[in-house]
Amino acid sequence: MTTPTSQPARIHIGSAPDSWGVWFPDDPQQVPYQRFLDEVAEAGYEWIELGPYGYLPSDPHVLTEETGRRGLKVSAGTVFTGLHHGPAVWEKTWEHVSSIAELTRAMGAEHLVVIPSFWRDDKTGEVLEESSLTVEQWGHLATQTERLGREVRDRYGLKLVFHPHADTHVDTEENVTRLLDATDPDLVSLCLDTGHYAYCGGDSVKLIETYGERIGYLHLKQVDPAVLAEVHEQGTPFGPAVAQGVMVEPPRGVPELEPVLAAAGRLDIDLFAIVEQDMYPCEPDRPLPIADRTRRYLRSCGV
């Protein structure tokens, strides 16, 4: 799947169901998976992520046929975990992860994107638990994330890339670096989502330059600073913030993606950079023009 080592390292651009307003395996507000696949190929992308498990066909033979005839390949699967709860949630977590890891491997992908669970409900804003972790919970998160990294590597040949996310316990620069410093680089790499990191006050270029050896994957996304300021002022949960338009297509928001891509390019490694513009819910005719403009913009950035 990766570029042969004899060739120069490069950034592989893709997109994901998220950019088509897909957040759930099945939702009447979302476009059918066939339309997503048709349009992501039409917009000029070669790589996709699996998105929420069950949205795309979970039978690898069916999915291989569907992607292959459109010239698409899979870069990663995605799982949500609550590993800060410790060993008590391991069996339930592994049951969830193993099916997705199996499909991810079957599709020839090498990465598993791991997103921590939300501390408040993504739709209602209901507070589910404290927004900050205790010292004990941080220990559980680090230990169990390493365990997950080891298991998916040994059983499925996958690389775990941890995705900091708004409204989770791993969000700000302080929390992201705390997790990185507490985990084994051989087991845990980072999926840097430029939009989520900016949403939580982080500087993506600085993070790449400081922790370059931990960057294993990118999600490309921008936030609207004006909407973000209102979101923070009002304490709006992430889901409603997205509905208000906090995430925008480049180059209309922050961070600037050209410096981010330049910094990533200096790492001199093969790297996936997947466009993920949160747009749930959205009108079915909205994603394709945005995806097309975004792909053309990224080409102007040299990728």
TrEMBL record:
The keyword tRNA processing does not apply. Residues 37-286 form the Xylose isomerase-like TIM barrel domain. InterPro entries: IolE/XylAMocC-like (IPR050312), Xyl_isomerase-like_sf (IPR036237), Xyl_isomerase-like_TIM-brl (IPR013022). Keywords: Isomerase. It comes from the Bacteria. The keyword Isomerase applies. It holds the Pfam family AP_endonuc_2. GO terms for molecular function: isomerase activity. Coiled coil: none annotated. PANTHER family: HYDROXYPYRUVATE ISOMERASE, INOSOSE DEHYDRATASE. This is Sugar phosphate isomerase/epimerase. It comes from Streptomyces endophyticus. The lineage of its organism: Bacteria, Bacillati, Actinomycetota, Actinomycetes, Kitasatosporales.
